[in-house]
């Protein structure tokens, strides 16, 4: 299957056949309406290079009317810049505004709609907007290239439509992104956001296991498992292990997504967990907040 970020959330769709876009389970524009921002700056993960991420770099919330006025001005300028082809610049600035607690629900909706579109193009399309094209050398495999850039080879395969990761053509140009991706999970929102070195890279709806009470903390992906289909398994085909007790997994009942009564710890719909399995690397940070 060749889709990346998908249903229920606000993740850009990765297609090996067409330009990626965002999906919400019923079509292809961006995801669910934004949930009220918590304003918890401690929940923001700094990217690997130590620079500020997302709302830490956004305008301070000391004067709400000034911030919202600045946002309106910014949004108008951002649309003009997009018309001029400045996708990476707009993506960076939109990411700074993401989850700003001062914005109204309507403003958040405007921000998310635009951010999902732009992130889909910048991160998941085949356009070389974040890194120069990678030119395949003799002996290269997608696994080796993925290790070089700190992302799973499955992600590169989905973006570039590569069917055989070990059979690349010398001189072939590949779209690459430099990872790793991180994830921030808000349990109260039933939402997971993925970030790429400080840049917004999509959202997913999650469900929480009924017996999991103490999930909060910062984890690092310990293992990723893709298993054969088991019709009796309530956890789907993919598992992203955070520790001995907690993991991200699929579900045999989509009704568990958005709820807190399912089995396991943190579940996503089947297509979403496949996408997240391709996005997060061993060692990716996952911060869980309530």
What's the mean pLDDT score?
Answer: 82
Strand composition percent: 15-25%
Largest sheet data: 5 strands, mixed
Q: What spatial order of strands do you see in the largest sheet?
A: 7-6-5-14-9
Which word captures the global form?
flat
Helical content band:
25-40%
**Structural classification:** alpha+beta
Uncertain segments: 1-9, 15-44, 48-57
Indicate the radius of gyration in whole angstroms: 18 Å
SSE pattern, N- to C-terminal: EEHHHEHHEEEEEEEEEEHE
Number of strands: 14
What is the distance, rounded to the nearest whole angstrom, between the alpha carbons of the first and last residues?
33 Å
| Quaternary | single chain
The number of helices is 6
Structure summary:
The chain has helices at 64-83, 87-97, 105-124, 142-149, 153-160, 270-279; strands spanning 11-13, 21-23, 134-135, 173-174, 181-186, 191-196, 199-205, 207-208, 217-220, 223-226, 238-241, 247-249, 266-267, 285-289. The protein has 290 residues and is of the alpha+beta class.
């Amino acid at each position: 299957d060749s889709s990346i970020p998908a249903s229920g959330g606000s993740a850009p769709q990765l297609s090996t056949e067409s330009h990626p876009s965002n999906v919400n389970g019923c079509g292809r524009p961006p995801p669910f309406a934004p949930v009220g921002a918590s304003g918890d700056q401690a929940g923001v993960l700094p990217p690997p290079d130590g620079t500020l991420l997302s709302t830490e770099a956004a305008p301070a919330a000391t004067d709400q009317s000034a911030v919202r006025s600045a946002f309106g001005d910014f949004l108008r300028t951002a649309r003009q810049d997009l018309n001029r082809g400045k996708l990476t610049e707009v993506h960076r600035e939109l990411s700074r505004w993401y989850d700003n607690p001062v914005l109204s629900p309507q403003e958040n909706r405007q921000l998310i709609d635009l951010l999902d579109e732009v992130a889909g193009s910048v991160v998941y399309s085949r356009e070389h907007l974040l890194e120069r094209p990678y030119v395949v050398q003799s002996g290269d495999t997608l696994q080796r290239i993925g290790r070089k850039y700190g992302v799973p080879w499955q992600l590169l395969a989905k973006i570039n439509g590569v069917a055989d990761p070990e059979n690349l053509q010398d001189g072939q140009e590949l779209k690459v992104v430099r990872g790793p991706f991180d994830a921030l999970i808000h349990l109260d929102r039933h939402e997971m956001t993925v970030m790429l070195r400080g840049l917004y890279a999509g959202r997913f709806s999650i469900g929480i296991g009924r017996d999991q009470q103490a999930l909060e903390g910062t984890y690092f992906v310990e293992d990723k498992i893709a298993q054969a289909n088991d019709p009796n398994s309530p956890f789907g085909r993919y598992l992203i292990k955070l520790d001995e007790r907690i993991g991200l997994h699929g579900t045999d009942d989509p009704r568990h997504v958005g709820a807190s009564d399912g089995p396991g710890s943190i579940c996503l719909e089947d297509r979403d967990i496949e996408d997240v399995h391709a996005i997060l690397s061993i060692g990716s940070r996952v911060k869980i907040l309530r």
